[in-house]
Amino acid sequence: MKNYQFIALLVVTTFLMGSSFAIVKLGLPYASPLLLAALRFILAGIIMAIVVITLKRPHPITRREWFKLCMIGSFQTAGVMGCIF
After folding, report:
1. Helix, strand, or coil here: 58?
2. Other Cβ atoms within 10 Å of 79 Cβ, number
3. ∠41-42-45 over CA atoms, to 5°?
4. EamA domain: from which residue to which, for each copy (predicted)?
5. Half-sphere exposure of 34 (CA within 13 A, CB side)
């Protein structure tokens, strides 16, 4: 994957994660925050499972690959949570 594609995917994913808070705000009159969070994670898990099965890409094997994956996830989550305020 080229560097610009990688960055574009990170930006799109971060936008999707950030937009979920606006959607949750719309759903709060109808369901509890914990239920909405659970639904959000279940939906994300189903989508990720479909993507992983469809793409049939190799999973991280080495510690370096897992470290890189964890760093991306941490910064992405911090970016989304940091943009709330």
Report:
1. coil
2. 14
3. 85
4. 7-84
5. 0
